[in-house]
Amino acid sequence: MPMPIHLKLKGTKQGAIQGSCTMKGREGTILVQGLEHSIDIPKSPQTGLPTGKRVHGALTITKETDKSSPKLLQALCSGEQLTEVELEFFRIKPSGEEEKYYTIKLTNAIIVGVRTWFPNCLQTETKAFGHLEDISFTYSGIRWTWVPDGIEAEDSWDAPKA
Questions:
Q1: Is 157 left (phi over 0), alpha (psi -120 to 50) or beta?
Q2: What is the pLDDT of residues 62-119, one digit of tens each?
Q3: What is the pLDDT confidence band of residue 20, given thresholds at 50, 70 and 90?
Q4: CATH 3.90.640.90 matches 5-39+51-156
Q5: Whether pLDDT at 61 is above 80
Q6: What is the structure's pLDDT at 130?
Q7: What are the residue ranges of helices labelled H in the chain?
């Protein structure tokens, strides 16, 4: 069963940007309902070989409109740098317990886009959705962690091509 991702944010001007989560141990986080992110390496259409440095696309989350929404819009409009952007992924273990198993941390992030939207509430397949927002972040660095084994990978846009 899919579980929401929990997002922790802190800005240089506004400080902690609190979400509306009331779940014990995750109070004040932002519940993320969807996430999209890509990293691509340009390649030659003739040979398929790499032709340049990897390109990090914006990391975009989908969330319900909540108390963090005005602060996220303020961060976008003012170009506020975010000193903490951490996405925490949870799952249910076979034993039935919940565990944090994956994290994504962004370094020197800013919000580069906010899209507010609401699916057609008369359609059967979308009537359960609330008022939603897509928040897009760019960053200078990213770190992925597989928590159970402490396996990490990281990248920075200014790191040399591997």
A1: alpha
A2: 999 999 999 999 999 999 999 999 999 999 989 999 999 999 999 999 999 999 987 7
A3: very high
A4: no
A5: yes
A6: 77
A7: 69-78
- Closest-CA residue to 78 (of 17, 7, 11): 11
Copy the structure tokens of residue 157: 């846009």
Q: Nearest 5°: CA angle at 102, between 98 and 103? A: 120
DSSP at 88: E
Q: Is-contact 84 48, C-beta < 8 A?
A: no
- 110-141 burial: b if 16+ Cβ within 10 Å, else e: bbeeeeeeeeeeeeeeeeebeebbbbbbbbbb
pTM: 0.89
Instruction: Please give the pLDDT value at position 116.
Output: 92
Residues 91, 99: Cα–Cα separation, whole Å: 6
Strand partners of residue 59: 137
Rg (CA), the chain: 18
> How far apart (Å, rounded) are the C-alpha atoms in residues 31 and 7?
6
Q: Which residues are CB-neighbours of 73 under 8 A, at least 6 positions away? A: 114
